[in-house]
Design a protein that fits this description.
The structure is a homodimer of 365-residue chains.
Chain A lengths: L7 H8 L3 H8 L7 H14 L5 H8 L4 E6 L6 H16 L3 E6 L6 H9 L5 E5 L6 H12 L4 E4 L12 E4 L1 H14 L5 E6 L4 H13 L6 H4 E4 L7 H14 L6 E4 L5 H10 L9 E5 L13 E5 L1 H18 L7 E4 L1 E4 L27
The structure holds a DNA duplex (16 and 16 nucleotides).
DNA sequence: CTGAAAGCGCTTACAG
DNA sequence: CTGAAAGCGCTTACAG
């Protein structure tokens, strides 16, 4: 099918040098004469040289292959954008990244032999709940395999010491979102948050208490949702929309930290006859490009994906290269409010701000 | 972070044998005394041995890692089920499989260094159009890297010789679907097919000509669609629904080889006020479990995923292990009609068959 | 500034 | 039936 792959030896022969020199030249070792480095580079290009990842990995004990593990990767636009950003950060450090979708035992069968087989130089666990037993098992596997890892996206059930954590402050996100909505005059705000992230509720309550406004029955206005299978997205959204609309008094805004539901929920609310943003303001999290194309475009509070990925990759690479002695490291990536039109913004279509209009339409789901 | 990985040497020491013997024992070489094999197996288990993929790959020149490349992997339920099935087939042969989502140049940047770096023992190109220049470039890259590959899902623009192809007969799928619909009494049938797969139209026409029924303006009733970005799915579906419903005479059935659109299209048709299956029958392709949970459950014509994956992995592994001399191989995987309720089947809710009812409802999209 | 040599963890002819 | 040895393609002390 094809020519044998070109190796260091081929280059060495072509350039009349030893394999060791070629190896050093290629990695830009300044001990090697500049002229030599040049010559080697040219020869390598001419032969289309690409280092054999396996040989390199064996020799250095660093495969330079990182795994980004999360559940429902590729399902969520946010995860996919993260993967792309991780990739960018990894490449800058001459690492590769492979996205592994590992959810509740599923996908593990696929990656475990590779993990144990020394494939990965490090793994980043993204957006897992370490309260979940399955996830704990997974992390134990990784630990047993002797693979360095970082936990990105935090988790409350994780002790701080002994872990490398790139943290997103969920409570702060909720606080920012709710304060924004309170400032716009909303008083009854529903929240659709992941079951496993109680921090959002803390932030929600904190925002109210910061303003001295009364917080009406938070136990009802906060709607926790579990893991949603891809196929069940619209169905869940419809149910949630129903729940939101049946609250009394009817909320005028909804904060959706369960970001995967934001689009579907918006769709369902519109189908239910609501005019957005007038009848219902919306804020979500995990900002992605797609929010701009939704109607109305979604306001969100989110980490900057690139900044976040950068922090995660940097921490991971430091851990890998620093060896066992790397002190455990906690980084918190800040969250910012990104205002679009879903709360009635100035952008594009006038400022709706405080004047919420009553709607008399029949709501049909 | 963790104990050094256990190696063959560790087992050898524990069992009081040489590394070579341990290596052979572990792969079940019958030359090795059964008692020895046993002892080695026990020792390996006790130490939690897992062979280092890199060392093995280096030594055998076969990394045993396969790549399944397709665009929009994980986006489509079908692709994901395929990945799972490939995985199963691969594992039976002691291979691993990694899913790579590579679309129009995108994702390539990520996988190319790994590909060139000798990571993959083989790659399966799934459901690509080799008429596309980008795809040709990709295949050339793979070829230059000296990596064996198979083309699964066929392509008309591919010459047969010199390729290993696992083929799906698109024309036959269309013929089966349309014949099914014609038999049920439908006379005006819309088709939503991928732009890049003209074979579907051939099958469509053939079904009509087999029955001597007149085929009304196929150039209008066949609606070609291009690549649809994930975010644009519902929008596209809405547009397509509109197009279908504006055809005159209004079709009573639609065949959707662009399978990713089937669910969304069904949803839109329902939202447009149609009663399914009475007002519109539907057949699609790429059968997945999810079809069973849709309302009404979707009839489809499809290859059996496991059979298909098995054929693909088998062909690929033969090519890898057979070396350059493997004769080019073409396998066609048969397609079957899977009848559910979306054409008004006997299952569950009575037989609607020939009596199509007129509907007087307003159609709102 | 460059090269010879050992080693990463495995496999596989080749001896015995 | 088992072992010593070479080799896969790279990296990296260690000499010179």
């Amino acid at each position: 099918m094809a020519h044998r792959k070109t190796t260091l030896k081929d280059i060495a022969e072509l350039a009349g040098l030893s394999v060791s020199t070629v190896s050093r030249a290629l990695k830009g070792d300044t001990e090697i004469a500049l002229a030599t480095r040049d010559r080697v580079g040219k020869a390598a290009d001419r032969l289309g040289y690409q280092p054999n990842v396996f040989a390199r990995g064996l020799s250095t004990q660093n495969t330079r292959i990182l795994a980004l593990m999360t559940q429902g990767l590729h399902f969520s636009a946010f995860y996919r954008q993260c993967l792309a950003a991780f990739e960018k950060s990894a490449h800058e450090r001459d690492y590769y990244i492979l996205g592994c979708s590992v959810a509740q035992g599923h996908g593990l069968r696929e990656y475990l032999p590779l993990l144990r087989g020394g494939m990965f130089a490090g793994v980043s666990f993204m957006d897992y709940s370490f309260g979940d037993v399955q996830v704990l098992d997974l992390s134990r596997e990784v630990e047993n395999a002797g693979v360095p890892y970082v936990v990105t996206y935090d988790d409350p059930s994780l002790p701080e010491d002994g872990y490398h954590i790139v943290r997103v402050d969920f409570a702060d996100q909720a606080r920012q979102a709710i304060e924004h909505l309170l400032k716009l005059g909303h008083r009854h705000i529903a929240m659709v948050a992941p079951w496993s992230r109680p921090q959002f509720l803390n932030g929600y309550l904190q925002a109210y208490s910061n303003t001295d406004l009364p917080c009406h029955r938070p136990e009802l206005y906060n709607i926790p949702v579990g893991l949603i299978p891809e196929e069940g997205l619209m169905d869940s959204a419809r149910k949630i929309a129903e729940e939101v609309l049946n609250l009394s008094p009817r909320p005028t805004a909804v904060f959706v930290p369960k970001a995967i539901m934001a689009g579907p929920l918006q769709f369902c609310l519109k189908r239910a006859g609501l005019r957005l943003p007038d009848d219902m303001a919306m804020v979500t999290t995990k900002d992605v490009r797609d929010y701009e194309y939704l109607d109305p475009p979604l306001t969100s509070v989110s980490v900057d994906i690139q900044e976040f990925s950068e922090a995660s990759v940097e921490t991971l690479v430091k851990t890998i290269e620093g060896g066992n002695e790397t002190p455990s490291r906690i980084v918190t990536v800040p969250s910012h409010l990104i205002i679009r039109e879903s709360c009635g913004s100035a952008t594009g279509r006038g400022w709706h701000g405080l004047e919420r209009r009553k709607h008399g339409k029949e709501v049909v789901l």
